[in-house]
Amino acid sequence: MKIKRFVDSNMRRVLRQVRDDQGPDAVILSNRRVAEGIEVVAAIDYDQALMQQALQVPPVEDRDESQRNEEAAAGVHVVAADLKPVDVENDTDDDRLVSLDALRSEISDMRGMIETQLSSLNWERQAQKNPARAQVLRNLTRIGIAPDVCNLITDRLGPISEPRQLWRKPLHALAEALPVAGSRLLREGGIAALIGPTGVGKTTTIAKIATRFAMQHGTGNIALVSADAHRIGAQEQLATYAGILGVKVHLAEDPGTLERTLRSLRDKKLVLVDTEGCSQRDRQMTDRLAAYGNNAERVHYYLTLAATCQEAGLDETIRVFSNVPLAGAIVTKVDEAAQLGCVISTLIRHDLNAVFFCDGQRVPDDLHYAEKKRLWLINQAIECMRSSAVNVDDQTMISRFGYAGALNA
Ligand SMILES: Nc1nc2c(ncn2[C@@H]2O[C@H](COP(=O)(O)OP(=O)(O)O)[C@@H](O)[C@H]2O)c(=O)[nH]1
Ligand SMILES: [Mg+2]
Known about the structure:
Layout: E1 2-8, H1 11-22, E2 27-34, E3 37-44, H2 48-55, H3 65-74, E4 77-78, H4 93-129, H5 131-142, H6 147-156, H7 165-177, H8 185-188, E5 190-195, H9 202-217, E6 222-227, H10 232-245, E7 249-251, H11 255-264, E8 270-275, H12 283-293, E9 299-306, H13 311-320, E10 326-332, H14 341-350, E11 354-358, E12 367-369, H15 374-388, H16 394-401
Helix pairs in contact: 4-5, 4-16, 5-6, 5-7, 7-15, 9-10, 11-12, 13-14
Guanosine-5'-diphosphate binds at residues 198-204, 237, 277, 332-333, 335-336, 358-361, 366.
């Protein structure tokens, strides 16, 4: 005889555990309420006479009818015990909450199962109806493009007449959909502030832009401003780059000082403002930046996004900085990203113009005009896919594109 103890917060689940573990011939020897929920002791290869003799317990017929029904429904035999059925009358509120929670989670499990099955059917139907479209969605998913953007791109494609278009057409459509803008910053100058979370490469990019500009217009026309009031290290980093270039760094610790500083620098062709690198969750910082935006001088704000970031992080950065008027985005760390689909999807979804792409730490070589590098970025995305050997299986496609929205209606 093999005896085992089972515990769960829910009677039906604990009985299911017994049946799964010990099979239909399992017998229940006892049940009782314990701190973790309901405890059931069950056995297989059971000798009834021997056990009853040992326990001196009433036979199974003496027990509550509903209890017997529940056990019968679960497919287990109860032969003996100090069996006390769950006492609904005397249940405490806590007990009822536990069973309500259990019921809710069971309903949610069932709903999940139905959704998965409908999604699977839905995806199969789509794939049968339009196999080329399904393959294009799979290809775009392999480079990390988000489902909403995949759908947007496939909706723009005409009919696909030969297999090689399964890659070519969507990649061209993706490059076309990528919002980019030319920047006059390097040619004509202006006042530019780089904003974004800590560590994305703002200071490094300022050094790249300043160096490029200096190569064409000389260093006398450039000023660098540090609006990073809190981190000495950040100011030092900018000062180091400024020292190499031979230009001065001006400190502006609050909006008032910044405005005065910018006014005093009116004769400079290019003024680059390095802002505080704080967490993108820091609302105070973006409010301060928005206040900078109110000053009389015309400051162009560029949101700096690291291509290494996950999509949720990129979306959150854009949302948090949405109270600052943006002139465009600078995408850094293209060289380090495992997948470029995230940043490409984010730019398309928010219709945010990329102005520069950066693909390394070298100043100024690794700074590129986004306008001229759309196809290059898409090619880089393909390279990332090849080197990371991403596998997009049916399950991924079902969960991304087969979702049975009807259930939510
Ligand atoms: N690989 C790579 N590293 C970069 C790039 N841009 C910046 N970095 C590095 O990222 C780190 C943080 O850069 P930093 O300019 O200090 O970021 P900030 O906090 O936004 O000012 C530094 O080690 C930079 O050298 C890039 O395009 N590619
Ligand atoms: Mg910095």
